[in-house]
Specification:
Elements: H1 34-73, H2 81-100, H3 107-124, H4 128-153, E1 162-172, E2 176-179, E3 188-192, E4 197-204, E5 207-211, E6 217-221, E7 225-226
Antiparallel strand pairs: 1-4, 1-7, 2-3, 4-5, 5-6
Helix pairs in contact: 2-3, 2-4, 3-4
Length: 229
Amino acid sequence: MIVLGSACSQPKVAAPPPAPKVIRDTVTVTVRDPELDKRFGRVELQLLARDAEIEDLQTKLEDARAEVVRAMAKLQTVASRAQAASAMAEAEVSLQSMKSGASEDPPEAAQATRLVRQSATEFNKQNYAGALYLANQAKIVASSYRGRLTLGNRGGARPGETPFAVPIRLKMTTRGNVREGPGTGFPIAFAAESGTTLTGYSYAEEWIRVGDDTGRSGWVFRTLIGRPD
């Protein structure tokens, strides 16, 4: 008997090669909203303005405290008549300078005038410490007016420009251009190195009007500056 099939071997079929591995990279793309970024910039500038207001109030508070301390000390060692008279004369000069430099009396003139008159009243009462204090307050008001006048003379206020309550100290956080106006379309006034100290006077949109210690002035974009450490 012949048995067919058992002796016949089947040909081996080669296994298919393994499929290649696919490596997928995940890339995170951040989409910036220009309007949101602009709003964020405005908030930053508003906070900067608020910081200036707080510094102004703090300065006034410290001045008031200093004057109170002087007044308390002078309860025992009274201010001299000559000191009070000198301060009153300086206050009167500041007041007259304020009035002569404007076509009409500025708002600060009324306040300074009132302080000068009150100082004279206390002087006549021989309250020389009180007279000195009030005369110094009048000089502070005059100094505030000069700061505001300086801002107005720096090329004139632009539409939408908001002044800080007081000039504030700033510094460049990176090297950048200070321009003649609030925008990249304006010519470059000067280049400021990182760490350069500047004084901020006002802002318009996302640009800050600044000046340096040499008298140069211009506008710098908000992302290029920060508060000193």
